[in-house]
Amino acid sequence: MSVGISKAPPATAVAPSPADRRPRRTRRRRPPRGLKTFEFAMMAPALTLLSVLSWIPFVILVAMSFAKVRTLGGVSLTFTGLDNWTAVLGDPAVWASWWRSLIYFVSIVALEMLLGLGAALVLHRLLRGRSLVLSIVLLPMFLAPVMVGLLGRFMLDSTIGLYAQLLQAAGLDADLLASPATALPVVASIDVWQWTPLVALILLAGLSSVPPSTLEAATVDGAGYFRTLVSITLPQMRPIILVALLVRSMDAIRYFDIVTATTNGGPADATKIIPLKLYEYAFRFNNQLGKAAVLGLTMLAFSIVLARLFLRFFGERTAGPTQGGDA
């Protein structure tokens, strides 16, 4: 008896569909970003400690601005509502100090940026002896601000000061720090003398980072020195200029040392800028720490607004997504 084995018909080949012809894309695991990175995990303890050290004093400062602070027998706060805010914002002397602070701020920042840019351009084009000249230029910024203030005070002293004797020989008024009309410009010039080298150093680093090929291409195209400076060099230095502006602006708003060492706010409150007014509220006038907290918060708000303005005008502008590109 024979058993027949039936053979199955051969399978017909099925043509692959267009979807099967497409190469399959393998999903790549994207590297973690933001809070999931290993770097952030390593920095998390330090960042947590810094945030605690920053936010606790800030919360206490806000609480002090709405309270009367007593320091005898321990620190105690008595809630007074908006009394501190209305007293400070309604004080004409505070607004006069703010006006003097704005004049002081604008004058020193503008002069330091202009003089620092000029010094950086000269040092950048200097081929021989640049290190020696740079070391000499940077000397003032290594001095303590109190020493700079005392040095300026002694040099302008009407009896023993060298500058005062030169002014007397020229037939000019020698007692510049005693005149309300000249005290603030003189104090501002001392600040400019000390911190212009820092701006020059920052801008010199920015000039050194400009690609030489770009400058050579501009020279080949027939652009002059000033045209190249305005159209190519300065636009590429925008981040560096922003750093210099932020560093000097945040320092100029709260500057205290030089003014205290030279005039202590005088004569006739001609140099009493807002940090000195805050010092008077906190330590001289019946220990009004609540009003001092209000001034501190207004200075913080002014610094934040100023930083946002600088970031808006000098920060890098990122281009938006191009049309027709991949999402």
TrEMBL record:
<feature type="transmembrane region" description="Helical">
    <location>
        <begin position="132"/>
        <end position="156"/>
    </location>
</feature>
<dbReference type="GO" id="GO:0005886">
    <property type="term" value="C:plasma membrane"/>
</dbReference>
<keyword id="KW-1133">Transmembrane helix</keyword>
<dbReference type="Pfam" id="PF00528">
    <property type="entry name" value="BPD_transp_1"/>
</dbReference>
<feature type="compositionally biased region" description="Low complexity">
    <location>
        <begin position="8"/>
        <end position="18"/>
    </location>
</feature>
<dbReference type="GO" id="GO:0055085">
    <property type="term" value="P:transmembrane transport"/>
</dbReference>
<feature type="transmembrane region" description="Helical">
    <location>
        <begin position="37"/>
        <end position="67"/>
    </location>
</feature>
<dbReference type="InterPro" id="IPR035906">
    <property type="entry name" value="MetI-like_sf"/>
</dbReference>
<keyword id="KW-0813">Transport</keyword>
<feature type="domain" description="ABC transmembrane type-1">
    <location>
        <begin position="98"/>
        <end position="310"/>
    </location>
</feature>
<feature type="region of interest" description="Disordered">
    <location>
        <begin position="1"/>
        <end position="30"/>
    </location>
</feature>
<keyword id="KW-0812">Transmembrane</keyword>
<keyword id="KW-1003">Cell membrane</keyword>
<protein>
    <submittedName>
        <fullName>Carbohydrate ABC transporter membrane protein 1 (CUT1 family)</fullName>
    </submittedName>
</protein>
<keyword id="KW-0472">Membrane</keyword>
<feature type="transmembrane region" description="Helical">
    <location>
        <begin position="102"/>
        <end position="123"/>
    </location>
</feature>
<dbReference type="InterPro" id="IPR000515">
    <property type="entry name" value="MetI-like"/>
</dbReference>
<comment type="similarity">
    <text>Belongs to the binding-protein-dependent transport system permease family.</text>
</comment>
<feature type="transmembrane region" description="Helical">
    <location>
        <begin position="292"/>
        <end position="311"/>
    </location>
</feature>
